Amino acid sequence: MKKPVNFSAEYAATLARTAVSAPPSTPPHVLVVEDELKTRDSLAEGLQMEAWTVSTASTGNEAVDLIDHATFDLVVLDWMLPDRDGIDVLRHVRQRGNQTPVLMLTARVAVDDRIAGLESGADDYLPKPFAFAELLARCRALLRRPVLSTSHFLRCGDLQLDTRARVAVRAGQAIPLTPREVDILEYLLRYQGQIVTREMLERDVWKQAHRFTSLDNVIDVQIMRLRRKVDGEGAERLIFTLRGLGYRLGREPE
Hints:
By secondary structure, the protein is α/β, with parallel strands linked by helices. The protein contains nine helices and eleven strands. The strands form three sheets. Strands 2-1-3-4-5 form a five-stranded parallel sheet, sandwiched between helices. Strand 7 and strand 8 form a beta hairpin. The protein is elongated, with a radius of gyration of 21 Å.
């Protein structure tokens, strides 16, 4: 059985000093990856009319270079590209831990192709030809989803988690967590302010979405233990149980 990590006061102090504030609200930055010039320009023009910032790429390698060196809120990615295809680009992005929403475009309409795209990490799939109004609606839907921060520092109030070092700190004091508790806390922080159901935790944290027996009791116990450590005596409450719905991490509105 793994033991909780030993934390140093020095690291806790360093982590507290590196806390970063949420960036100001700005128009979404969208990357359009499409090798056909007319389609690429039409998509870019249409999205820019929404007052969105748009960057474009015509090859898979160009897309990878842009994604590796810039931050995007959404990627509209064509499957068929002249060098590395969209699936390869998508796998590269996900393997690096980048959770930017991706809308896959393709002329392939077979069910197996759609499954391949989604299982490679696409968030949505739009077959060609398509109406721009539908593409725009799908883009808006993806942008409305909870933001899964790609930063390795996640913060809520005076609580911060370094996902690389797997160290949690609250009010400058390190919190000794088990590996599973770190996993749960990271998931709640990435979805902070949103309802997280037991089914989501079972699927995404326990990786057991198709069990014959429920993990509800196990999850409830883990959440209870995590809450005791994070919401210690005198601390502002951050982890809430919503009866019949699930859990939510976030500060109560003032």
